[in-house]
Design brief:
The protein has a five-stranded mixed beta sheet with strand order 2-1-5-3-4, sandwiched between helices. It is α+β, with helices and mostly antiparallel strands. Helix content is 40%, strand content 13%. Helix 3 packs across helix 5. It comes from Sandaracinomonas limnophila. Keywords: 2Fe-2S, Iron, Iron-sulfur, Metal-binding, Oxidoreductase.
Length: 165
């Protein structure tokens, strides 16, 4: 049975067991290695991708559940690695070992789409459930805050540019 879906804006057809978790379809069949395996029970967040724009744990999600869905992985977040969250992560040197970072970034970007000007408490709540083995939680929180500021500036500058046009 062939399952059709869109991954990072490209139409894909996969002829694999429909019970295969999305994580393994991405990593083993499409060679998208950015999404990581952490716990296998949707508790750590390392495997977070977007399914139809929502942050979703891919390690327990069967491929059949995403038929005809739009999936975005860390590789598809931005072509140039210039998404505000990625820029903030880089500026604040967030990763230590880096293993959890793709899931952290995908969760943060999804969170900021819903809450573009979060408080520190909202950031902590919004990022809860994403585990960092190195304990860089403070840097993660600071990066989410910085990303919200970068996105706001980007939005302001693009609004000014379109007003001049």
């Amino acid at each position: 049975m062939s399952i059709q879906l869109t991954i990072n804006k490209k139409k894909v057809s996969l002829d694999i067991d429909p019970n295969t978790p999305l994580l393994w379809a991405l990593r083993d069949h499409l060679s998208l290695k950015g999404t990581k395996y952490g716990c296998g029970i949707a508790q750590c967040g390392a495997c977070t991708v977007w399914v139809n724009g929502e942050a979703t744990r891919s390690c327990v999600l069967p491929l059949s559940a995403v038929a005809n869905a739009d999936v975005t992985t860390i590789e598809g977040l931005s072509e140039k690695g210039d998404h505000p969250v990625q820029v903030a992560w880089d500026q604040l040197d967030v990763p230590q070992c880096g293993y959890c970072q793709a899931g952290q970034i995908m969760t943060a970007a999804s969170f900021l789409k819903k809450n573009p000007k979060p408080s520190t408490t909202e950031i902590i709540d919004g990022m809860s459930g994403n585990i960092c083995r190195c304990g860089t939680y403070h840097r993660i929180q600071e990066a989410v805050k910085l990303a919200s500021e970068i996105a706001a500036k980007k939005k302001t500058s693009s609004t000014k540019k379109s007003a001049k046009a």
